[in-house]
# Entry
Amino acid sequence: MTELSEDKPSLQHLPVSLFASVMGLSGLAIATQKLEGVFSLDAWVSSAFLAISAFVWLGLFLAYAVKILRFPRAVFAELNHPIRLSFFPTISIGLLLLSIGSIQLFPMAAQLLWWIGAAAQLIFTLLILDRWIHHEHFKTEHNSPAWFIPIVGNILVPVAGAEFGYAEISYFFYALGIIFWLPLMAISLNRAFFFSAIPKRLLPTLFILIAPPAVGFISWLKLHSGNLDDFGIILFYVAVFLLLMLVVQARHFIRLPFALPWWAYTFPLAAMDIAAFAFYAVIPQPHYLYFAVSLYVILLLVVALVSYRTIRAGIKGSIFLPE
# Structure
């Protein structure tokens, strides 16, 4: 075990939250697949995005594995952190998204990724719930939308699970995610309304609020073979409203200095865009297509900007400094 160095760039400071970049990149890849499908385009762009996502996940996984071996105390510190703890499932969510994106390209590999991702997601969920229930230092002020991440991962499982024919397992994860999403939403609103404001650095995590209903809608469609019902419509429009709510608050986000929480913009926007394309596939009215394509352009620009700023920060070494 290597001693901690608190004031120098070091792998010990590599944050587990950086796996959220895989969520944003793979979400963009899947949204691109939807766009290519609607306009009958070749799939080379989405395939390139998916390959980049896989490369980033593998690179981060290897780097974090080294961190576990060399700096275990730093890893335990993240496991005890009230916010960073919730980012550990981004590791398994990344695998689930890579599985979804590769179903058509590599069905056998996609199924293997799904099994590993689903199993890891369940383990992370149980671990985090254990820490939430038996904590000694968490307070209401520690709550942030990042706490939704362990739950969103479960709602995501049926997207590929239903394709593979694992209906019962998919319903298990979906039920877990949806039922726990509701009280967490109430807790988050209570924290936002009655306690001190979320730190400015974490403001981008408000976009995570969009993800549960957006992903929930996509999974619900998959579980019902693409048949749209009232519950699916409700989920979709809840996600649309949350997006609108955040757009109205744009003034709070525009001038924020760059930080890794900016990646919180990306996957929720991707989930909303994929949901919009899915809604258009069921109800092919032009305004839904305009919405989906417009949102895709915004998603592409946001992912490009955040990727550039992250690479730039990585070159400067600021990602590997303590917060």
